[in-house]
Amino acid sequence: MKLSAIATRTLGAVLVAGISVSSLAAPRTHELKASPTTVHRSFFDATLPPVLTIDSGDIVKLETASGNPRYFESLGVPKEKIPAELYAVFEGVEGKGRGDHTLNGPIAVRGAEPGDTLEIRIRSVDVRLPIAGQGFNIGRGTLPEQFEYKFDRALWIDMKKRTVEYAPGVEVPVKPFWGVIGTAPPPEMGRVASGPPNVFGGNMDNSDLGAGSTLYLPVFNAQGLLSIGDGHAAQGHGEVCGGAIETSLKGEIQVFLHKGQKLKWPRAETATHYMTMGLNKDLDDAAKAATSEMLDFLVEKKGLTRETAYMLASAAMNLQVTQLVDGTKGVHAMMPKSLFGK
Fold first, then answer.
1. Beta carbons of 55 and 118 less than 8 angstroms apart
2. How many Cβ atoms are within 10 Å of 260's Cβ, its own excluded?
3. What is the bridge-based pairing of β-strands 52-54 and 102-109?
4. Maximum distance among all alpha carbons in the chain?
5. Are 265 and 199 a contacting pair, CB within 8 Å?
6. Which residues neighbour 113 within 8 Å (Cβ) at sequence distance 6 or greater?
7. CB neighbours (10 Å) of residue 101?
8. What DSSP letter does each residue of 254-321 carry, written as one string?
9. Do 157 and 174 form a contact (C-beta atoms < 8 A)?
10. Is the CB of residue 156 less than 8 Å from the CB of residue 132?
11. d(C-alpha 134, C-alpha 162), whole Å
């Protein structure tokens, strides 16, 4: 891609001036497969050493793993039907938890410093193993008073039809994405559980961040320290029971560093929409944050007055409930790109 093409990407227009010089060189392609030495589980930590170092513009081919074999065994799945590589990735892991937040990384980006932004282009993402799991827990999900018990189920992905059968004649099409994409948190936060999303991204569980989307994350530490995992074969907006179709994924990302381009919260874009995000324990406050962030974007980058931006948002912007179940709830605002002239 020529520099001029890179520079004209919008919401990336937020970040145009900060593309690092290293992104002008031919990108290198790296591989990062899930293994006991390349993953960390259920936390983010700025002191965690990187397992891969890349330059701005480089491509990373990923294979992520979700599904502790002991979890599937506990549901009656015969060992011979559980992929051997899952046994290797989860070697030494105790218990029967599914291990959804088995995260590849951290990935260090040379030259990244606090106050910069990482642009993560999801070039491709797809299911790679046919086995998946889903469940709900006591006191979790959107309807805990109706489901006062734990329930889990092994699910099977038809890799040719690209569907998951829930019951005869009831099939869910595959729409894969990574539920967790985040930089390392600010150092003063220390080690942070990966369940609730936060200012650094993390467990956003945003099903609109699939192939072809681009995510922008603030940098809080030297080298950025990006981690990715929590593969979902499919998930509805809301993720109401507390779990998606949790499975192992493969795909490619391309990472660009934008120097001196500071974001307050994660932002994103798809082929058709600009996206801002709100994260809060209160769903109303999450909606307010997503809306306010969109107004900021429209004022700063599209030149609208804040009053016009507010009315435009009411006329054309959609608020999506990203998820309700991660402690910190998510709302993302979607503004059509088609409204804006070339």
1. no
2. 11
3. parallel
4. 62
5. yes
6. 219, 222, 259
7. 24
8. EEEEETT---SS-EEE-SSEEEEEEEESSHHHHHHHHHHHHHHHHHHHH---HHHHHHHHHHH-EEEE
9. yes
10. yes
11. 17
Say if strands 226-232 and 177-182 run parallel, antiparallel, or are unpaired. Answer: antiparallel
d(CA 131, CA 156): 5
Using a 10 angstrom Cβ sphere, with 0-12 exposed, 13-18 middle and 19 or more buried, the burial of residue 255 is buried
Question: CA-CA distance, 317 to 310, in Å (whole number)?
Answer: 10
Q: Do 28 and 55 meet the contact criterion of CB atoms below 8 Å apart?
A: yes
* CATH homologous superfamily, domain 269-339: Acetamidase/Formamidase-like domains (3.10.28.20)
CATH class, range 3-264: mainly beta
| pLDDT tens digits, 237-292 | 999 999 999 999 999 999 999 999 999 999 999 999 999 999 999 999 999 999 99
Pairing state between β 170-173 and 177-182: unpaired
| pLDDT tens column, 176-223 | 999 999 999 999 999 999 999 999 999 999 999 999 999 999 999 999
How many helices (H) and strands (E) the chain has is answered by 5, 20
CA atoms within 13 A on the CB side of 171: 12
Three-state SS at 240? coil
One-letter amino acid of 137: N
Of the chain, the end-to-end C-alpha distance in Å amounts to 20
- Cα 208 to Cα 46: distance, rounded to the nearest angstrom: 27
Region of residue 313 (phi > 0: left; psi between -120 and 50: alpha; otherwise: beta): alpha
The domains of the chain are located at 3-264, 269-339
Compute CA distances 331 → 175, 179, 194, whole Å: 19, 14, 18
